[in-house]
Amino acid sequence: MLKTKAKYQTWIRIYKLLIFLVISLIFLLATLLPVNLYQRVLSGVLALPFMYIALILSYSVYQFAAFGGNYQSKIHDLIVAKVNWGGKGKILDIGTGSGSLIIKLAKTFPKSFLTGIDYWGGNWEYSKAQCQQNAEIEGVSDRIDFLKASAAELPFNDDEFVFLDLFMDEKIFGDEKELLNVLKKHGVSELNSYKLAKEMKLPNFLLNKKVLGNAVILSGRK
């Protein structure tokens, strides 16, 4: 019997892509209706921004996914490579998603214990259950806990973790000073941020500010 493979979703929400594709298609089909020329031209013009966004999202999904450029996995590999740590203790992964990064960390540091937190809201296409399943498939479920929690209100004791990682938009990083205060309360004394675009070569489309143009890697340790 073939072993079940772990399933890691990309950061792009597919339902949003489908919405823009459907709206684009509706406007394009409207140009074929037996109406006056002005209405057909207007429908074509209205279709353009939706087509542009759908193109960016479609290309981003392709570049992030394993069947395309595999950049999501490459970015996680970069984050793991930047971990300057002895490998023993507890790691906190903020914004776990479908578990790709935290599982890579668990496999790289076999003596570590890890906790991954995320909100896993209804608008996202991954869940805590999916993370747990992926960790079990990858053979690291005994060292990882997944919790539904907010980065601004970490439900942990002070000094519980020796290392944390976070991959986020630079604008959020700049506005969320409270996040850094919370992290310091939990024993983080050294914080480093890396702008992704300076750390690895990315396709021009991914440099769009709506995709990874503002992305930063934040890591902290005691």
UniProtKB/TrEMBL annotation:
List, alphabetically, the CDD domains matched: AdoMet_MTases
InterPro entries for this protein: Methyltransf_25 (IPR041698), SAM-dependent_MTases_sf (IPR029063)
Which keywords has UniProt assigned to this entry?
Answer: Membrane, Methyltransferase, Transferase, Transmembrane, Transmembrane helix
Residues of the Methyltransferase domain? 91-166
The protein here is known as: SAM-dependent methyltransferase
Bilayer-crossing regions: 12-35, 41-62
Q: Give me any GO biological process, just one.
A: methylation
